[in-house]
Amino acid sequence: MNLNDSFIAGAGAYVKGKYAITPTGVVMKGTGRAFSVEPEELEWGGAVIGRGASGCVTCSRHRPTGTPLALKSINMHDKAKREQTMREINALFDSSVRGVWPGWLACPCLVTFYGAFLRDSAVVLALEFMDGGSLENVIHQLGSIPERVLGSVAYSSDIWSLGLVLMEAATGVYPYPKHRTCIEMIQSVLESPPPMLSSAYFSPEFCEFLQSCLQKQPLDRASADVLLESPWLQRCGAVNLESAVRNVREWIEALQKE
Predict the structure, then answer these.
(1) Rounded Cα–Cα distance for residues 161 and 144 (Å)
(2) Can you say whether residue 107 is alpha, beta or left, with left for phi > 0 and alpha for psi between -120 and 50 degrees?
(3) Closest CA to 71 of 86, 51, 91, 87
(4) Could you give the dihedral angle defined by the CA atoms of residues 116, 117, 118 and 120, in that order, rounded to the nearest 10 degrees?
(5) Which phi-psi region, left, alpha or beta, contains residue 141 (left: φ > 0; alpha: ψ -120 to 50)?
(6) Do 5-128 and 135-256 come out as alike in CATH topology?
(7) How far out from the chain centre does Cα 164 lie?
(8) Alpha-helix residue ranges (DSSP H) falling in 142-230
(9) Pseudo-torsion of CA 236, 241, 242, 244, nearest 10°?
(10) HEC-encoded secondary structure of 232-253
(11) What CATH number does the domain located at 135-256 have?
């Protein structure tokens, strides 16, 4: 048996490459670098905040310090899952060690890694608890704006959002197709052409208005002043705030009478 890829029953450890995971922590062999975890100091049985094919993630807390944690439990019976888990530990371990050992800087783009340990035939990763919700929810809340995905937001972002809202109102469906993963969603926004409507089903003025809003480059989008002069808004009589409010009120009153 290759001890570099095995579970050592007698020692109660999982050894893979340069790492050894025990019931009380993980150590990088030959370096002295280690993360020690005392499972009895953690709160167990917290709410499930994530679930996947390889395991689940639950809320927890480190009792001595009160630090909120996310515990990711991964079943290690499947070889592919073991490989994926060790790659994740390698990245997290290396990044977090950089913030602990002199001369090493932690990577701010990764969650903080507090350690990993064996528990009931599974490897448990103790990670920083991120309370912002899933990335998918965040992206949807941001309106799939390209510059927000890239980390920059400006006034013209509202113009993009306006275009998406109007398109969804006109078609009854969200302009971007549903994706299996958040990464696919990001790639779709950044790499595919902006969503468009066909003039065969909608007026040319409306299609032109949306095209002016849904330009991927912020500087290419029309400003609010330019949009107010657009043929579509002119035809609808919404040339200023007062007339727009009046038109909406009249439309609602007409619907109530039907």
Answers:
(1) 8
(2) beta
(3) 51
(4) -90
(5) alpha
(6) no
(7) 20
(8) 146-150, 156-171, 182-191, 204-213, 224-228
(9) 30
(10) HHHHHCCCCHHHHHHHHHHHHH
(11) 1.10.510.10
* Class of 5-128 in CATH: alpha beta
Give me the tens of pLDDT residue by residue for the chain, a chain 258 residues long. Answer: 233 444 443 457 777 777 888 888 888 777 666 677 788 889 988 888 887 666 789 999 999 888 899 999 988 777 777 777 787 887 777 666 544 434 434 555 567 888 888 887 788 988 888 876 665 555 455 555 565 554 555 678 888 888 888 888 888 888 887 766 666 777 777 778 888 888 888 999 999 999 999 998 888 999 888 888 899 888 877 767 677 777 777 776 776 675
151: left (phi over 0), alpha (psi -120 to 50) or beta: left
Place of tokens 């990764």: 110
Q: Where are the domains of the chain?
A: 5-128, 135-256
